[in-house]
TrEMBL record:
Protein name: Oxygenase MpaB family protein
Recorded superkingdom: Bacteria
Organism: Rhodococcus chondri
One Pfam family this sequence matches: MPAB_Lcp_cat
Composition skew (Low complexity), residue ranges: 1-12
Residue ranges of the region described as Disordered: 1-26, 300-333
Lineage of producing organism: Bacteria, Bacillati, Actinomycetota, Actinomycetes, Mycobacteriales
Composition skew (Basic residues), residue ranges: 323-333
InterPro entries the UniProt entry points to: MPAB/Lcp_cat_dom
Domain ER-bound oxygenase mpaB/mpaB'/Rubber oxygenase catalytic: 31-265
Length: 333
């Protein structure tokens, strides 16, 4: 296993003889568990784990304006991320679009190391965090997975990754190899850097979109305990080597409480009507599969309220579809 990004500008196209990648479908475990709103709780974990990769963290520090519009960026990014799983025949096109947003993200970091967002090791690390967040979220919310389920989810994550059109040489060969890869990355590759600390610094977090009518003075009063709670949840999700790297302590008592909190959230999620547990892009995938909307219905895009600021909308690094304030999928009669 390579310990860090090579920094080269790779040819991201698959080999000419490779068959076209098959999208995942409703029979997969990934469709069952991915794309839910409860996954929003893993946002700080996923962002910080990704940014601890040297190449990815450097790209964020030097090219990203995420922290200028934290909620909007998060909300709109979920649409293409979930689309690679739930867009059916359009999934490979969505994957290619995501790959394209990374073409120009390259440079030399503060330590003199070259990086490129399309370096296969770097790009795969981002995907690995999405996959592993799915695994640990299932176990946190639902309970332990069997080895058969872990192997099945691993195979599905490989199928999912093929849809990006990236070289496959960075992908481990099995679930067991992935576990070794993940441990190696946590112990030997990840770094404590500014991009990671910026993700974890929620001290100025604005009200989430669904609380826009919540009085701002009251939000400023409740924000500190909310922020501490989010950070505590995130620290509990880290592997021990990552907690050590970032300087966090964790007790057996906290571990027990953390597991109970996750299970309570999982049980509460079951009270939500099934379709509405899913993000709109994921829900649209299920609706196509179940015949609630036309099989050829266009993919659902983020509403206009989540778009980047007007002066950034033509940038090739941004997902910025031409949409109005509200954007609904057409339903069949």
């Amino acid at each position: 296993m390579r310990s860090q990004s090579s920094g080269s500008s790779p040819d991201a196209d698959p080999a000419p003889h490779d068959p076209a990648p098959e999208p995942l479908g409703p029979g997969s475990l990934t469709w069952k568990y991915f794309g839910g709103w409860r996954g929003m709780l893993f946002g700080p974990w996923a962002g910080s784990m990704q940014n601890m990769h040297p190449g990815l963290g450097a790209g964020v520090e030097e090219h990203s304006e995420f922290f200028d519009e934290r909620w909007e960026r998060l909300y709109r990014s979920l649409y293409p991320i979930y689309g690679v799983v739930f867009d059916g025949p359009h999934a490979a096109e969505t994957g290619a679009q995501i790959r394209g947003y990374h073409n120009t993200i390259k440079g030399v970091d503060a330590k003199g190391r070259r990086y490129h967002a399309l370096d296969p090791d770097t790009f795969y690390w981002a995907h690995a965090t999405f996959f592993y967040s799915l695994v640990i979220s299932i176990e946190w919310f639902e309970g332990p997975l069997t080895f058969e389920q872990k192997h099945r989810l691993f195979d599905e994550h490989v199928q999912w990754y093929r849809l990006y059109g990236m070289p496959m040489r960075s992908v481990p060969s099995s679930w067991e190899a992935f576990a070794e890869y993940w441990d190696h990355m946590c112990r030997n590759v990840l770094e404590d850097n500014k991009a990671t600390r910026d993700v974890l610094d929620l001290s100025n977090l604005d009200r989430p979109p669904f609380l826009r009518r919540f009085p701002e003075p009251v939000w400023k009063l409740v924000r500190p305990p909310v922020v501490r709670g989010f950070l505590w949840l995130t620290v509990g999700l880290y592997d021990p080597p990552v907690r050590d790297l970032l300087g966090y302590s964790w007790s057996p008592r906290e571990e027990r409480i953390h597991r109970l909190v996750g299970r309570a959230i999982g049980l509460g999620n079951r009270l939500v009507p099934w379709r509405y547990r899913y993000h709109p892009r994921a829900r649209a995938g299920w609706d196509r599969a179940l015949g609630r909307i036309r099989a050829d219905a266009p993919v659902v895009h983020t509403p206009g309220r989540n778009l980047p600021p007007a002066h950034r909308r033509d940038s090739p690094v941004h997902y910025s579809p031409k949409v109005t304030h509200r954007n609904r999928t057409n339903m069949t009669p």
